[in-house]
Amino acid sequence: MAGGVQHHKMALDPAIVKLNSMQSNRHIFFRWTPRTARITFMYAVFVPLVIGYIGYKTDGLYDLRAKRKGDLIYER
């Protein structure tokens, strides 16, 4: 209502302002390093492979439908 003037009751901390601008522009400052390549490989390739392998090995091994007292969920 009073225009574009910002009225701050407390002074802004320059370190927090710089951190905010760095986080909002993170894609501009990103660089491929051995560490970032390793982390990307782990999350994009290795983790899905491990989860897929575990799912493939346990497919049909457990039956989680309604069981009666004393019945096992283990099928083999």
DSSP helical segment count: 3
Principal-axes shape call: elongated
What share of residues are in beta strands? Answer: under 5%
Rg on CA atoms, Å: 26 Å
Provide the structure class: mainly alpha
Number of distinct beta strands: 0
Main sheet characteristics: none
Polypeptide structure, described:
This protein has helices at residues 14-24, 26-29, 34-57. With 76 residues, the chain is an all-alpha fold. It has a domain at 14-47. The chain is elongated and about 70 Å long.
Element layout with pairings:
Blueprint: H1 14-24, H2 26-29, H3 34-57
Which features would summarize this protein structure in a list?
76 residues; mainly alpha; 3 helices; elongated
